[in-house]
Amino acid sequence: MNGDTAQTTNHAQEATRVSAWERVHLIGVLLFIALMVFWPMGNGDFWAHAKVGEWILQHRAIPRHNLFMYTAPDFPWANHSWLSGVAWYVALRTSGVVGVQVFQLLLIALSWLVLWRLWKRCNAPDWLGIVCLTLAIGVSHYRFQPRPELLGMVGSSALLYLLFTVQEGNCRRLLWIPPLILLWTNFHGGVVFGLALLWLFTAGEAAQRYVFRRPSALQPTQLRWLACIALISSVATLVNPYGFRYFQAMNPERIQVFSQNILEWMSFPQFWRGLDSGSRAVLVAFAGAFLFSLIGGMKQMRLSHLLVVAFAALMTWQHLRNIWSLAQILVAVMACNFGGGTTGPARVSQRTRQAVTSLLLVTVAFASEYYLVLQRHWPGAGINRESLPLGAVRFIKEAPLQGNMYNDMLDAGYLIWSLCPERKLYVDILNAYGEDMFRESRRISHNQNPQEILDRRNIQYCIISEQNYFSQFARWLDFSPEWTLVYWDGISLIFVREGGRNQDIIDRFGYQLLHPTDPERVSHEAAMLSPVQRGQYLGEIAAGLRNPVQTASLFAEAGTMLVATGAPAEAEAAFRQALAIDAWHPRALLGLSQSLALQARTAESVQVLRKLLLVSPNKSKVRQLIAALSE
Length: 631
Description:
With 631 residues, the chain is mainly alpha-helical. It is built from 28 helices and four strands. The protein has a four-stranded mixed beta sheet, sandwiched between helices. The radius of gyration is 28 Å and the shape is globular.
């Protein structure tokens, strides 16, 4: 046993030697991660978690009830990410948004560097390690937002490192697991996933020795250590501000509701259907690399590895949010399968390895970045003025609007940060409410008798996010005599109840002719407008363009309404103004093409559509438009 341990240690020391090419490729991997991190921050749940962190530091207490909703003020809340909220708030207040992104980069890089260290300890081929890390990052970058999960994923990679190196014989290293689990518990609820991995790994190793009697199985002493550590770690999860109540929010019924209402809880098949071909190719290549590792490593494959892979794959199939954990586990297993440099790929020539690694790194980085571009995430730092409701928040504060608001969940993160606690929200993004609230919110967003809910909740104004701009509910508000549009900017809409607490706001800012939610209906009605009404219509558009928060979305929306009213030249000017702010704004490019076509400038219109083709996720529709104009 001592001889085996010494030999393993010697292998580990040899594995730490770093070649020049390895340094170059490792730097390339870190740059790849940075490319996935540094794009302007949009309206995610980061803002809500940072606000919770601010509340904790201000009150020197841990929240136990809903903080930000007037609809569920007394709902008991176990905040699984309270410590992450503090960390994100401190990062934001001390270093700004760029500092948050740097912290985000460090956490993501650390999670993968720990697994790179595991790869080296397994004495697996370095070039294959870079290949597998690159593919894993390309598979999991969808989860790289600044959120509590990042701190949990550092814990996940550390746990994998400690478990997958236990066969070296140093059981004392396992003593790091209970404090790791304790911290993870207070940083993120994903600790339940980590605890499942720990018990599955222990069960697999025990079965390998006592059921299958494999010679490579852990010794009884090591198994006793593992079992004791798993038990202590399970108890450690109770060291949190909520005790057993920490786990009550994880009941199956609640998780099912999450799956129906929250995007990150979607199934993998749903996610797959929305991917572009490049992103699909990266996923297939990563799965292929893992299957290839099984061919050469089947003899040394451990039951514990198969169990954790099967568990993570099943969880990812059900809920996409687990894809990063699955990628980490597959990298750890591949490190063991390729360990010792005995597999076929290790015999590939040095020059071929370098070429393959470099080409793959560039290709996967390009495919991943292109996916972000299709989602309108361009490289950069700071905040995304085209997705945050900056103008709407400013209007609410300065008008000022009074009474209960309606908001959809998609806007809740930044609204919490900028409006709470002075104003409370209808629904937040922290899920600190019961299943009935999810269903009620869904009824409104699906336009199922919304007036009854709006009356019962005494809602005085409604904020509609960009994603729901053209929803049935937004159109119902837009054409309902009981609600009046008072604000639009292409990112948010605000409707105010007639005869309510904000009637003076309607008198000052109300729009009588504009209907941004249904431009086609407006175009049919435009022909019936009198010259005076048409002048009023154009005047309302001009009034909206005086918004101090100037964005490409604002001018693109104005251009869309100008096209609807039969003013293509004026629309062209608005769209060009939008493109001066954001040269690749999809709605502005499509609108500019339309306004040029209406002016019989077909060649210019087609040229704009070809530019749009590069960044539009709906390429088939753009190609159809090009074909129609080219006839």
